[in-house]
Amino acid sequence: MIYYFLYPLHTQPGLSWLNVLRYVPFRVLAATMTAMLLTFGLYPWFIRRLQTKQIGQVVRDDGPQSHLSKAGTPTMGGALILLALILSTLLWADPGNALVWVVTAITATYGAVGWIDDAAKIRRKSTGGLAGRYKLLLQFAIALGLCSFLWYGDSGLPRDWIESRGALGVPFIAFQKHPLTLPPFAYVIFASFVIVAMSNCVNLTDGLDGLAIGPVMTNAATYMVLAYLAGAVFFRHAIADYLGIPFLPSASQLAIFAGALIGAGTGFLWFNTYPAQVFMGDVGSLALGGGLGALAVLTKNEFLSVVLGGIFVVEGVSVIAQVASFRLTGKRIFLMAPIHHHFEKKGWAEPKVIVRFWIISIMLAIASLATLKLR
After folding, report:
1. What pairing do the DSSP bridges indicate for beta strands 180-181 and 167-168?
2. Strand-pair partners of 56
3. Could you tell me where the DSSP H helices lie in 279-349?
4. Omega cis (within 30) before 74
5. How many CB atoms are located within 10 Å of the residue 63 CB?
6. Sign (positive/negative) of CA torsion 145, 146, 151, 157?
7. Do residues 231 and 251 make contact, with C-beta atoms less than 8 angstroms apart?
8. How many CB atoms lie within 10 A of CB 184?
9. In sequence order, what DSSP letters do the residues of 327-346 get, joined into one string?
10. Residue 362's pLDDT is what?
11. Phi, psi at residue 74, to the nearest 5°?
12. Dist. CA 183–CA 188, nearest whole Å
């Protein structure tokens, strides 16, 4: 909104400095700082409110014994992440860009699903919240609705998106030479699956202090770079053509959302780092995972997201494999799933698991960016 109201004033005498609002990198930095200041400033008050309302974490009895002491720690702290993220995005992004509204809508609505799940857990004082089938139904309904808009919403979508929709970016293959294109129905289903899968994988990763938010910020930083490069033009030449990625000028606004996510995540991590003073809850993990999935779809990095979000993918696959193995053979593959609990059961200290997963996430982000030059 700041961009919408203040940028047109740069032509007025004495206000030429407002021309800086024209540049996406400036607004990325502004959104990052805005979200960071909001979370740093509000979390102490927010944590006290959660404690007053007795909104505390419910811990599994069959988990690592060290987790029992976490029972009662304030949860649903992700609500403040979403407030800072969405407010900062709306303040600094171009409100006329439909892609910004899509990623914001997915993040907000998935946050609402997570809030319902968290509220049910707290009310029942149990780790079982909203039934899994209902949670998936809501997630797919939201994703299918918004992905359908991405295909059929001609009047509200940017022209560059309309011209390239249905096409998927494939790592190591130049987009302009060999685009992989899906028909409408298949594209909507595929894009929805990416969003729902990433949302649930991030949710499964959120089991240790700071474990999920670190890779979330690493992923957001990478998407920030990818989104900006997709629309960057230097000396009248599109960087996207040089790198062999889709040329999407409208996607550059998504870098502002990603920057706001980094800022909000940083403020949250200050209070969520081991030992955590607050947990994000499903209201945060489902929403942030949905936001990352939406960034993958909107920047056409659906396949690359498997590498970039490798930590989340492995966490999700470990749960699927554990359940499938137990039902088919009666045996478990891991000591406990998700896989981060397996390493805890093997004797790894919680901070060691967290930091090593962060390191792997950073390595995967570097590998993902390296694919830009290997096409």
Report:
1. antiparallel
2. 74
3. 281-298, 304-308, 310-329, 339-345
4. no
5. 16
6. positive
7. yes
8. 12
9. HHHS--SSSSSSHHHHHHHT
10. 98
11. -50, 135
12. 9
Report residue 259 as tokens: 């920057």
Residues in the chain: 375
- Please check whether residue 232 is in contact with residue 252, taking contact to mean a CB–CB distance below 8 angstroms: yes
Cα distance between residue 93 and residue 4, in whole Å:
8
Tell me 238's DSSP state: E
For residues 150 and 161, give the distance between their C-alpha atoms in angstroms, rounded to a whole number. Answer: 8
Q: What 8-state DSSP symbol labels residue 276? A: P
Inter-CA distances, 212 with 18, 149, 181, Å: 37, 30, 32
- Identify the DSSP state of 249: G
Closest CA to 310 of 215, 213, 195, 171: 215
- Which DSSP category does 69 fall into? G
Q: What does the alpha-carbon distance between residue 300 and residue 138 come to, in Å, rounded to a whole number? A: 24
Amino acid letter at 82? L
Cβ atoms of residues 282 and 75 within 8 Å: no
Question: Which pLDDT belongs to residue 7?
Answer: 65
CA dist 209 and 313 (Å) reads: 19
The span from the CA of 81 to the CA of 264, in Å, is 5
CA-closest candidate to residue 105, choices 153, 69, 43, 165:
153
What are 237's two structure tokens?
Answer: 């030449």
Q: Which residues contact 309 (CB under 8 A, 6 or more apart)?
A: 198, 201, 202, 215, 219, 292, 296, 364
What is residue 308's predicted lDDT score, i.e. its pLDDT? 97
Structure token pair of residue 204:
């499964």
Spatial contact of 213 and 258, defined as CB atoms under 8 Å apart: no
| DSSP-H helix ranges across 165-276 | 184-205, 213-231, 239-243, 254-272
Chunk the chain into consecutive blocks of 10 residues (it has 375) and report each block's average pLDDT, rounded to whole numbers: 72 75 91 97 94 73 59 87 97 93 97 93 76 92 95 86 88 79 93 97 94 97 96 78 89 97 97 93 96 97 96 96 93 93 92 96 97 84
Strand 237-238 with 233-234, pairing:
antiparallel
pLDDT at 60: 59
Q: Is 56 helix (H, G, I), strand (E, B) or coil?
A: strand
- Residue 179 has, within 13 A of its CA and on its CB side, a CA count of 15
The terminus-to-terminus CA distance of the chain in angstroms comes to 38
Residue with tokens 């947990």: 279
